[in-house]
Amino acid sequence: MTREVDADKRATLRRFAALGAATPLAASGRAVADGDDSAARDAIRGYLATTPGAHFSKLRDDLSLATGETQHHLERLESAGEVVSQKDGDYRRYFPAGRFSAFERRALGYLRRDTPRGMLLGLLRRPAASGADLARSLDVSRATVSTYAGKLADAGLLDTEGGYRVTRPEVLIALVVRYADSFGPDAAAFADDAASFISYDG
Prior knowledge:
single chain, mainly alpha, 3-stranded antiparallel beta sheet, two-stranded antiparallel ribbon, 12 helices, elongated
């Protein structure tokens, strides 16, 4: 059993390491000295290139790494200026350095949460949707929608004056389309229909 787990871990690391070796992070000249051949660090580079904004536990679990191992490699990558992180509630989220604005990092964090992502996608599809509409479509309470609407407004992603309106919808659409597969089926379905939203004028 242990041998199978180790084989699965090596396969996972190899897959993401291939992405990591091709990412600009590895070719930027900012590679970690004396450890650039680390399969785990290459895997983290590749993983974050395709799943920016992942929190620590998700990154650790998806790459089949141990907690201490994950902490060590992320610290090395952050020290080398290849990765940046920021606190997001109870989570710490990680991003390739120099790739995203502060607004985009906040947006990616919320797009990685089921209910806020559902709200944002719902409003991008139907800009006139009400809180009650969103609650019904997401099968959550109106209070839950209201709570997340306040958090999204605080993050600068939602204007709640006289209803709900996504701020900078073009940025949200671009992020959803680019990283749809890493968010989930709802984002993938949205991305498939993206052409009909490009002319959305918020």
